[in-house]
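User: I'll paste a sequence; please echo it back and then give the predicted structure.

Assistant: Echoing your sequence first, then the prediction.
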Amino acid sequence: MTTTTATLDVPGATLYYETRGGTGPVLLLIPGGNGDAAPYALIGDILADRYTVVAYERRGFSRSPLDGPPDADRIAADAEDAHRLLTHLGAGPAYVLGSSSGAIVALELMTRHPADVRLLLPHEPPATGLLPDRDELLALLDGVYETYRASGTGPAMAEFSKAVFGDAGPGGFAGRPAAELPPGMAEMAGRIQANLAFWFEHELRPYPRYRVDEAALRAVADRVLPVCGRESRGQFPYRASVALGERIGRSAAELPGGHVGYVSDAADFAAELAGLLARG
């Protein structure tokens, strides 16, 4: 599958994006806390015969450098970036899948620019405000941040993964040596490692504190379908997807794998995702 790459200048940053396919409707993939486009490559290759699959890197991550200091309201800036990219592509309304932090961005995109979106699939947004144990979860994440400040990204990531995902971890290729990674993933792993400090500093605390505009989403609930990983049951991002569905009157749908099922179970994830998109 041929992949084309390009960049888009936006206020305060330059966005890197990749396009696969080109004949079907646009499917925009918004990355999570790793900020990188490469984890979506596996499902992008599979779906490119039916969709124009566009994956980009959020501002400040990987190949999307900032022109100055990070924005005070990064969630708003991220949502406007997604809007600008879709406008640049002439792609609206588009299918949009955002995972983890990317699901937060996707929800804000839908709130600000509902005309951009044909169908939104927020995959496991870490929106603690939807959950009864919000305060405990935020205290846990604040503790991870203190570990990061005191001991660095390695110990903090281990603490985060254990607290949020348990012994199984988030899945995907986390922790595997570079020699075991698929082509292109080893380079990605290096970029993601370099992204960690930025994520800890600018996303770990504010993104889970995002307040979902439930009224705005209920108004477009026929175009919002929360999704979560079958192997994530019990984890707080899974619970947030379910709670989001309950708040807007939609039943959350499950997809294969866990928090990064689009990597660990790419073929099955892509097949079931295509089914959800086809049904709308």
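Residues 134-151 form the longest helix (18 residues). The CA atoms of residues 83 and 113 lie 7 Å apart.
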